[in-house]
Design brief:
This protein has 3 helices and 16 strands. The strands form 2 sheets. Strands 3, 5, 6, 8, 9, 11, 14, 15 and 16 form a 9-stranded mixed beta sheet that branches. A 7-stranded mixed beta sheet has the order 2-1-4-7-10-12-13, with no helix packed on it. A hairpin with a 2-residue loop joins strand 15 and strand 16. Helix 2 runs antiparallel to helix 3.
């Protein structure tokens, strides 16, 4: 089964710039600028005024060869922003050109950012580059996750051709907390190797960082390790200096997302000082 989009579809170059600020007790989406098919329609307040929720829309619903997306979001002092997406992101088969998404997030002192997108599905034959850069101030808070699916399992499709390159860098006060880079071709031996994907088709990473993590890490790890993915997939939760990391490796994106959501429910009060309120968009 192949994508219905023609491989020669016109390329999109799109940008989205968001800036969140604090105004009294309210977190406000102060700047919302876009070019091309990337946008946030309005600020939402499902938890009250303290948390500003933004749903990032990509109207073409998929990224094709030659498309380049750039999302930049800054959360200024004292503000709390939660960003998510309305559905799975799709990376379509390419006729040869690379597609890319660059994500740049900045979180100021006293600010909190939650980056909680739904999964990304890389179609067979896609050529995808995903680059994430997050800059945290000394007294800022972050909850972020990423779920990557290779091929469309429901259609019996494997990632047999194409290319994926990944990069993620998180810094706090200019010092690196997390640097991860990787790349593989379709049918790369790494996908079958026990040292790589071990034959799995879904990989997920959850990252949490906040100033008081060191003193709470032991208790949070104990609580998180009582939670397991519903599909019994390989998983783990680890505390590193300044960072708590959750990993999923299996074949079920829904199970991965549900597991991350349960971890988020456990970790959010410690990281963000607020109980978890599930975004309604996840249930649509």
């Amino acid at each position: 089964m192949t994508s219905r989009l023609p491989v020669t579809a016109p390329a999109w170059h799109a940008e989205l710039h968001l800036r969140f600020t604090r105004a009294g007790a309210r977190s406000v989406l102060r700047d919302n600028r876009h070019q091309g098919p990337l946008r946030v329609q309005k600020a939402l307040y499902p938890e009250g005024e303290a948390v500003c929720q933004a749903i990032v829309l990509h109207p073409p619903s998929g990224i094709a060869g030659g498309d380049h997306l750039h999302i930049h979001a800054s959360v200024e002092a004292g503000a709390h922003a939660q960003l998510t997406t309305p559905g799975a992101g799709k990376w379509y088969r390419s006729g040869g050109a690379d597609a890319s998404q660059t994500l740049e997030l900045q979180v100021a002192d006293g600010a909190c950012l939650e980056w909680l997108p739904q999964e990304s599905i890389v179609f067979d034959g896609a050529r995808a580059r995903m680059d994430t850069r997050i800059a945290l101030a000394a007294d800022s808070r972050l909850m972020a996750w990423d779920i990557l699916c290779l091929g469309r399992a429901a259609a019996g499709e494997r990632f047999g051709s194409g290319r994926v390159d990944l990069a993620c860098r998180i810094e706090r006060a200019g010092s690196p907390l997390w640097i991860e880079r990787g790349g593989f071709d379709g049918n790369d031996p790494l996908l079958a190797s026990p040292a790589g994907w071990a034959g799995a088709t879904v990989c997920g990473t959850l990252l949490v960082s906040f100033p008081g993590l060191a003193g709470q890490a032991a208790g949070l790890l104990e609580a998180c390790r009582t939670i397991a993915p519903a599909d019994g997939a390989r998983h783990g939760v680890t505390a590193l200096p300044g960072l708590l990391v959750g990993r999923y490796l299996g074949d079920n994106s829904e199970a991965a997302r549900q597991w991350f959501a349960r971890l988020w429910e456990t970790l959010r009060p410690a990281c963000c000082g607020r109980p978890a309120v599930t975004p309604r968009i996840w249930n649509t």
